[in-house]
Amino acid sequence: MTVIADEVVCAPRTGTLYDVLDLVLDRGIVIDVFVRVSLVGIEILKIDARVVVASVDTYLRFAEVCNRLDLERDSRSRTVPELFGGMSGSVGRAGARKATRSLGGKVGGKVKDALGFGDEDEEPAEDDRDRDRPRRRAAAGGAGGRSGSRAKSRGKEG
Amino acid sequence: MSVYVYGVTRAGLAAPPGIRGIGDPPARVRTPAYGGLAAVVSAAPDKLRPRRRDLRAHQDVQLAFAGRGALLPTRFGAVAADEEAVLARLREGAGSYAAALDRVEGRFEMNLKAAPVEDGIAALVRTDPHVARLRQESRRRPGYDTSVRLGEAVMAGLRRRALAAAREVADVLTELADDVAPGAEVPGGVLNVSFLVAADRVADCRAVVDDLGPQLADRAELRLAGPLPCYSFCGLAAPAGV
């Protein structure tokens, strides 16, 4: 089992734009006599993101991760809880990081597309750069066969 | 000239120095008042779109006023024909705006979102007979259909685990909050809930998530956003059809 040494550095997310988008766009007061500008790009974005997350690709990938698990080995070592916990932890975490990154990346990419819609001259926002950085670093430091699958999932984002 | 509206606040609350409105170049933020209320407005840009920069400016202006007292934040994109229309609305809604401002005064919104993580797949296979059976089937007869069924069951199981973990955290935050408002479902997420929190409890909320988050990391990814303007606690029902 490849052990991945690099920890993903999570930027403090005290309110990245993506995390509060639903509040800024769908909550807050609505003043009926005022015009509310139509936000077509955002509506499309939300639907797109949901389709990506619940896609068959995701199911197939989950099945693959699930089938790769060495449960027989895990159950034999059930008498040694520390070892057991450590093993399943490292298997799971490695997979999860990959998954989180690819899901988050895809969704983030869509957000970026939508927010940049018709706005080619604009610099990427600060928070987007911050969020990209740890991903890049993690991929560069990835060990063994894992880095290949990471590069692939990163490629899909772009 | 049309004006962009950020929200409703109390009269006498000046725009914080250096605050920049939406648009390029950023518009100057003003606070036209009527009676005890004031609107927070700036000139509306010709073409308003949900750009990153403008969404950010919208939120920053709102947060600056919320931090100085009380603000009823508008949704992004509220534009009035002119300043007179804004003042007329303040006059009509004076009573309900004043009551809603009392409710959010000195408070912020904290938003908790939770998403599933793959960390618990091994635990899921061991504890969920349905998933375990599908996995055996998929190993015995590998194929597209069995894989999809297995993956679907794994996804559902991970979501259940994440939701249970998220609820543990939400329960603790609820005790710190003056009010709670469930949010809309977000793509891929299992929980989206907002808390109305007194300014001096914002740090406590963050400490809860910082403490419990790592403990629950193999079940849920937890993200706490805030302090935010009180988007979910304005106490004004949205007009029908919006």
UniProtKB/TrEMBL annotation, chain B:
<protein>
    <submittedName>
        <fullName>GvpL/GvpF family gas vesicle protein</fullName>
    </submittedName>
</protein>
<dbReference type="InterPro" id="IPR009430">
    <property type="entry name" value="GvpL/GvpF"/>
</dbReference>
<keyword id="KW-0304">Gas vesicle</keyword>
<dbReference type="Pfam" id="PF06386">
    <property type="entry name" value="GvpL_GvpF"/>
</dbReference>
<comment type="similarity">
    <text>Belongs to the gas vesicle GvpF/GvpL family.</text>
</comment>
